Structure to design on (265 residues):
């Protein structure tokens, strides 16, 4: 199966066509889309790698740039930008360096671009083999910190509300949900209740859920456990403690799976 690459480019241009032809010649399936929110939404789950060929139009699409930035950060997409210096600077206003894997300043070497796409595609394919985690919390600072801790070992998607979490699992099935217990509007317990009520819907009700809680006193912990999640983690835990807990959870699941298969033989 060919690796898919989304090429974002406006209209028809010689350079846009050249980029597409070079990527296709290297064996990639190129999905070419306009720099529009609707087009990006339609293809966001079809590829891990996005190549954005900028133009003067970049000044006129701030909402699209913000959407692309959020999409790449929240869904761990790999983004490559191509453009002249003013275009790259304009894009950087809405898409910070942290959301960009690589920038190519025009004029650039198409062969070098194809090589870099190959390198990032390999990284994306390796990442696909990792367990996936949906991290849900209304605190953006905490989200980014924990995502950074988990990124090396897991594929992490972040959302900032219970509603966004429910929308995500409607189309995706993460291997684990790390769910903030206390959130406004739709709380962690409400999200868990709705997940468990989706019996037989694409296996949603069987997705493991571990609560994240800021309260470690006995009464608070007992209240959390009464909802029968797959566990709980205190937000005050260190990086190593959280990583160890998540690693141990997946190891436990692996052993349980092996034992279940052995019993079926």
């Amino acid at each position: 199966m060919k690796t898919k690459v989304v090429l974002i480019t406006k209209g028809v241009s010689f350079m846009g066509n050249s980029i597409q032809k070079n990527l296709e010649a290297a064996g990639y399936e190129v999905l070419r889309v306009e720099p529009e929110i609707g087009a990006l939404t339609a293809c966001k789950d079809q590829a891990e790698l996005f190549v954005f060929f900028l133009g003067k139009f970049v000044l006129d699409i701030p909402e699209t740039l913000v959407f692309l930035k959020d999409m790449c950060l929240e869904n761990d997409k790999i983004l490559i930008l191509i453009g002249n210096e003013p275009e790259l600077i304009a894009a950087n206003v809405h898409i910070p360096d942290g959301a960009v894997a690589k920038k190519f300043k025009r004029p650039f070497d198409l062969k070098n671009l194809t090589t870099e796409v190959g390198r990032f595609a390999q990284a994306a394919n390796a990442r696909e083999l990792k367990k996936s985690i949906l991290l849900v919390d209304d605190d953006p600072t905490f989200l980014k910190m924990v995502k950074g801790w988990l990124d090396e070992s897991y594929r992490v998607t972040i959302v900032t509300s219970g509603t966004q979490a429910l929308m995500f699992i409607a189309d995706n099935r993460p291997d684990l949900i790390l769910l903030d217990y206390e959130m406004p509007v739709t709380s962690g317990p409400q999200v868990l209740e709705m997940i468990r009520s989706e019996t037989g819907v694409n296996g949603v009700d069987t997705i493991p859920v571990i609560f994240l809680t800021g309260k470690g006193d006995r009464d608070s912990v007992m209240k959390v456990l009464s909802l029968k999640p797959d566990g709980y983690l205190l937000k005050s835990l260190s990086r190593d403690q959280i990583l160890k807990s998540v690693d141990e959870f997946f190891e436990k699941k692996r052993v349980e799976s092996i034992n279940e298969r052995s019993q079926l033989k």
Observations:
- The CA atoms of residues 54 and 83 lie 5 Å apart.
- The chain has a mean pLDDT of 87.
